[in-house]
Design a protein that fits this description.
35% helix; five-stranded antiparallel beta sheet; alpha+beta; 146 residues
Length: 146
């Protein structure tokens, strides 16, 4: 009987090492890109949150009074325009809605929202947007009404 040992040729071993190194290189590049993209997404979420906060404060102005609060909705009396508006969580967004209808979306992609009344004119707002948590305070009725 002939006893023959089969094995890899040197060329086959070199080719398999080359393919393995290419796979490792592609995986490391992909991981780096994903980490960079994640930082950009979190940065964009931060920017969107701050923009929504500024829009809310501009819309409510200095002459808004808190009428009613719940965990998902604030009823705010706009003293300047003699109207009532609602700041509320609705279908994964935070919006400002007038009493007669219509709404202005402030922030989309909201997973959770929780309002907590601290005092007669301060409300604590906890928001989760795409897995990023924010906490802010809403100060109402900053100036006296003449």
């Amino acid at each position: 009987m002939k006893n023959k040992l089969d094995g890899f040729l040197l060329v086959e071993a070199v080719i398999s090492l080359f393919i393995t190194s290419l796979v490792i290189l592609v995986l490391s590049f992909t991981t780096t890109c994903i980490k960079s993209l994640n930082k950009k997404v979190v940065s964009n979420i931060n920017n969107d949150f701050h923009l929504a906060t500024i829009q809310r404060d501009i819309y409510l102005g200095n002459r808004a009074k808190l009428v009613m609060t719940s965990t998902k909705k604030l009823k705010i009396s706009d003293v300047k325009n003699s109207s009532t508006v609602f700041l509320e969580y609705y279908k994964n967004m935070i919006r400002i809605r007038g009493a007669l209808g219509g709404h202005m979306p402030l922030l989309v992609g909201v997973n959770q929202l929780y309002f907590q009344q601290i005092s007669s004119n301060i409300v604590k707002e906890k928001i989760e947007v795409y897995g990023v948590n924010f906490e802010t305070y809403i100060f109402l009725d900053k100036t006296p009404v003449p």
